[in-house]
Amino acid sequence: MDVLNSTGMADALREYVQRDRPFLGICLGLQLLFDSSEENGPVSGLGVIPGVVRRFDSSKGLIVPHIGWNALEITKDTQLLQGVDGHHVYFVHSYHALPSDANKDWISSICNYADSFISSISMGNIQAVQFHPEKSGATGLSILKNFLSANSSGAKAPARRKASKLAKRVIACLDVRSNDNGDLVVTKGDQYDVRDHTSSKEVRNLGKPVDLASQYYIDGADEVSFLNITGFRDFPLGDLPMLEVLRCASEKVFVPLTVGGGIRDFTDANGRYYSSLEVASEYFRSGADKISIGSDAVYAAEAFLQTGVKTGKSSLEQISSIYGNQAVVVSIDPRRVYVNSPEDVPFKTVKVSSKGEEYAWYQCTVSGGRDSRPIGAYELAKAVEELGAGEILLNCIDCDGQGCGFDIDLVKMVSDAVTIPVIASSGAGAVEHFSEVFEKTNASAALAAGIFHRKEVPIVAVKEHLVDAGVEVRV
User: Fold this and answer.
1) How far apart are CA 429 and CA 446, in angstroms?
2) Is 439 a catalytic residue?
3) Max Cα-Cα span within the chain
4) 27 is catalytic
5) Which residue, 362, 421, 355, is CA-closest to 391?
6) What's the CA dihedral at 197, 200, 202, 204 to 10 degrees?
7) Catalytic residue among 175, 296, 379, 385
8) Which is the catalytic residue, given 333, 407, 409, 436?
């Protein structure tokens, strides 16, 4: 609003809307239409629709941001939402507008997340949605078509299973790095070792990043993550092929794209300094919706826990303050360390039964799992939430590539500890592992890589199993 007011665009927008010209607001574009918002505020909006935009209340355990595929309850017959009933659409936000008698004539759909909030409005030619149609797959593309084409029928196949609430997400992850020939390939390791155990010792090549990402979108992946697994070694903005991968993938993949690897402050060989914010901004401009921070977040959390001071200078704090915490994922890479008693270490432990030991804590690592740090996964998760993370990608080095299932003890410990979404990662080998992690923990999503790349467990099979198990998913 500061920018719109200082440039005169706020008055221009008000006049445009009052003249009933075709208008489509998306996410913040809906919130701007209201009287005011609590975000960084109160801040006055355009004042077109009565109401105040408020933050979701996480004080009672509600996971905030509201990230994922949720259902709409359509309350007004509009062309924009023709064919959308029964399908999930993608939300990512922490603030919402509440329905009231004063704005009820504007509302075209509501969504439920603890309470009902306004998910879309329609009045004449003025349309706005809280969700992201450009990231809502075929359903979202039909909404954009409905807006752009006055004569669009909006016809869409009936949902095979009617959307009713926030769905659990199934995420396809692509570990990307250059092979020995300099080609960017998708690879997969066992406990983070990506080279073949043969005489060649070559980097495993499981396909081309854009081709695989496009296929996973078609297969029904709810999100696609690219992890530049050697990004901690090199200057990420020097990795032009990775930026090109994002640009090309964003033209074909209409679900959220996350990219991670090497996002930190950096000085190149010529002595020029680049901030982590500049690095992240280039990823966002190239098509990423979220960025994932690993090692740099560990160092920031360690400093915060030592001093209790938020400096605002870490990559995590800088990026979340500019782009919002929903755009920042922190990737945690721990390994199990067994102890005889919880009193043996100053970190949160869990009771386990494997290897005859009774307790374990999860020691975090940096530099692709190569270096261990004196901080536990529980402590790191709590700290990065305080520093501005909007989501946690929770890996487990012990389970990586083993196909024996997610580390339920770890996922439960962390997902119970924070009020931001947790993505379970590492260890999936069968469809049952996905239903297990959703039934036994508060994980919002589950991620897999190798089993999808090798076609051992198709995404469609995972979704069908989850439906049979009674887990809400986007079909």
Assistant:
1) 12
2) no
3) 73
4) yes
5) 421
6) -50
7) 175
8) 333
Cα dihedral 78, 96, 26, 445, rounded to 10, equals -100
Residue 227's Cβ-side half-sphere holds a number of Cα atoms within 13 Å equal to 26
Question: Tokens 């280039």 map to which residue?
Answer: 282
| Single pTM value for the model | 0.91
Whether 333 is catalytic is: yes
Active-site hit among 88, 93, 132, 465? 132
Point out the catalytic residue in the list 27, 173, 364, 396: 27
| Contact present, 55 and 65 (Cβ < 8 Å) | no
Give the sheet arrangement for strand 23-26, strand by strand.
23-26, 126-129, 115-123, 107-113, 73-74
Exactly one of 39, 85, 134, 357 is catalytic; name it.
134
The one-digit pLDDT tens for each residue of the chain (475 residues) are 999 999 999 999 999 999 999 999 999 999 999 999 999 989 999 999 999 999 999 998 899 999 999 999 999 999 999 999 999 999 999 999 999 999 999 999 999 999 999 999 999 999 999 999 999 999 999 999 999 987 655 455 566 678 999 999 999 999 887 665 656 677 654 444 444 445 555 544 446 888 999 999 999 999 999 988 655 445 555 555 778 889 999 999 999 999 988 788 888 778 888 888 998 999 999 999 999 999 999 999 999 999 999 999 999 999 999 999 999 999 999 999 999 999 999 999 999 866 666 899 999 999 889 999 999 999 999 999 999 999 999 999 999 989 999 999 999 999 999 999 999 999 999 999 999 999 999 999 999 998 998 899 999 999 999 999 999 999 9
The reply to whether 132 belongs to the active site is yes
